[in-house]
Amino acid sequence: MGWLMNTWRESAARRELTALTDRLGRMGATPALLPAGRLAAVDQHAAAIRDILTLGAGGLSQAQLAYYARGVHDAARDAGWTPPSADGAATDWVVLRLAAVCLLATAGAAMGADLDPALFS
Fold it and tell me: Residue 96: which domain range?
């Protein structure tokens, strides 16, 4: 029965990450819409997230990425952060961090399952 729970968890995580990507897209802050300089920042955030999840959680599954994104958002909100307007989104740390999660999730979905950390070394 564990396989069913894992399948459900991954499916829910993919939906959550898709919704996050859509919200960032409305702000103009998905990796595909960011200028080159900001995309480099997203890439650095992605490397940091990869290290955190690989060393701490053991992998980069869609579920781990969704949990991480939720934690970043919740911690930022608890600290008083509010989503910036579209013109400030490309420089906001939280937005760039969440865009990096979406970048990793997209790469993982394109590859099928968990990402091999060596791909981003």
Answer: 2-120
What's the confidence (pLDDT) of residue 108? 66
pTM as predicted:
0.81
Looking only at Cα atoms, what is the longest distance across the chain?
A: 47
Amino acid at 49: I
Among all chains, which residue has been given the structure tokens 């791909």? 119
pLDDT for 112 beyond 50: no
- Please classify residue 65 by burial: count the beta carbons closer than 10 Å to its beta carbon, then call 0-12 exposed, 13-18 middle and 19+ buried: buried
Please, are residues 39 and 31 in contact by the beta-carbon 8 Å criterion?
A: yes
Total domains in the fold of the chain: 1
Residue 121's pLDDT is 45
CB neighbour class for 18 (10 Å; exposed up to 12, middle 13-18, buried from 19):
middle
DSSP, collapsed to helix, strand or coil, labels residue 75 as helix
